[in-house]
Write the structure tokens for this entry.
Amino acid sequence: MKYLTALQFLFICSFSYAQNFQISKVIVDKDTKAPLENVIISNENDNSITNAEGRFVFVSQQNEINLNLLGYNKIKTSFDKLHKEKDTIFMEIKAFELREVVISNTEAFMKKVYDKFQDNLLQNYTLNFFLRNVFKKDQVNILLQDIYARKNKNSSQKNNLTIEILNMRKTSLFEKKDKVNFQFPDFDGLFHIIVPQIDKCNFLETPFNDNDFKKIAFKTNEKVQTGQIWTGYFIINRKDYAVVEYSLTLIDDPEKIPYKKLLFSKEEYRTTKWTKFTQFTKDAKSNKYYPSNIKIDNQVEMLVYKQSKKNVYYDFTMDFFATNSPTDEKINSNFLIHNDIFRAKFPYSKDFWNNQNQLPLTKELETFLNSVSEKKDKTKEFEIISNF
């Protein structure tokens, strides 16, 4: 558990044709009718998750379906039942008794959480996953990359993380006059778990509508080199002290972050947003936990000196979710974990992407792909990098 001292300009994405059942639905809050993001859809072998619109696609050979979101009543159902119902699923907030928050016990409780953190994590396993990377300039899409891959973690090996990319589609649309060479994240940064040092944090238990879990907010009591305070929260299983959800924000006052100059350029930049959200799922066989859903959201502000000085904002998001339960399968590593993910070169499989349903394109991304297609011949104005 290391306490980072600086932010860098780095934007730190199972499907099987043999599956028999498939369904697509939208999940909303029963009372507010608001879409519910990060609902875990699973059974013994397969996983999926809802997006920001509350929509999911789930594919499995098993008929059983479990819907789970912290703070809500779990739903146990099946493909057969859901096919007979409407397109919208309503989840109900758990009824709970508000426990008294005992401030004096929070530090001792978090000491146990930190002590058991590594022991609660699954150490040796293989997962299939999807990863979506989206890059925007002033809220306009300029890059999309979707990856279907396998991850193997083996704590007994020197290189304890390996990646096998199975399928990929990517495209980008950069205006040549504004071309900036970005260094994008790597898999090591995606899967690395950053937590603040326990002795540098103030912890506060906050009300949470599920008595099986505790929600502990934290705030670092020392500023890092960039003058920032780290904030976030843990949601912790009361029985085994395991973290099941973790959110971290590294920037609380972006105006205090100084600009840095780009090499061989007048332009200056600074990172103005860095957040990471991780959900951990318990493996039924080992009773250990593994990261099943990771979302990273970063923003960089750039001062561009052309005719006049102006601010340009670049946003980069990564969205990872596991598609199956952990296995002990071996993989054929074909991509180094420290390499820039967007520089990966793998052929596009039209059959795979036309038939997979777990990572659908949003309307916004469909519009972006249409824009790329319309500008593909305008090579003087635009640089297009694509494998399809």
